[in-house]
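Good morning C.,

I know you're traveling, so I'll keep this short. The sequence:
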Amino acid sequence: MESSRIIRVIVVDDNDSWRHFLVTALQGRPELRVISEASDGLEAVRQVELLRPDLILLDIGLPVLNGIEAARQCQKVSPTSKILCVSENRSPDIAEQALTNGASGYVVKSNAAADLLPAVESVLEGKRFVSASLALHPPGAHQIKNNPYLQFRHSALITEFLMSVIEATGSDFGKLQLFDPQNGTLRIVAQCGFQNEFLSFFDTVSCEGDTSCSRAMARRDRVVIADVVTDPVFSAETRGVLLSANVGSIQSTPLIGPSGEYFGVVSTYYKARGGALPHTWQSVDDLTERFLASLVPDRQP
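The tokens, ready to paste straight into the viewer:
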């Protein structure tokens, strides 16, 4: 690492004490300059997009948007930023997910006193660094087997199913998301009628998010939002994106397989308030049942 070059760093951790520790540790190297701090994943992505840092120190267990998904989005908005995960999570699978979603290094917090600065140097030099206490293994088929997003995102059946649900509910727009259990998120795999602002905002949604699909995923039951303007589930930002997309009401139906496994959510959107009429639910349920039955034979052994 060149001492004459200033390395701009963003530190992301929801624990104030850990953020302080990381900032203090970096102060031992005068070329490392902390330009910002964040305490949740979504705020981290926003700051990275605005500031384009050289290095991001990123926790995994973050609120709003977990660290793995935050790493993926940070890489998307600032491809030249290096990402070093610093987490108390010692799972090799979690570390592998981080490394395949944009991170160049992974430091276990219990090893941070010894590993942090060597990891920073390695990552900035374009090398990979992983705490020695983690025994990583190459990703295998077992990581895909029970992941609906990885298994079915390219299925030709998806668009056909979505269009059928849109027609059955008489809706104006629609989207289908598949569940990615590795990251605990829903990810859009098909849509109809939406523009870039909406799709970018809802591209990946946490199960703890402030959306109708998040609520349907958490409850494992259909959610109906009769009026986007007044429903308390939405934050001001989420509501604003929906209204900008001319959405007045929503229904989100969870996709639950014949054995109770969770596949994702199909949502339809309406310009008018009030949404779909109750008599359409049976058609949606029938379409969903046939769609999921057709997917199950596609599962890889």
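Safe travels,
E.
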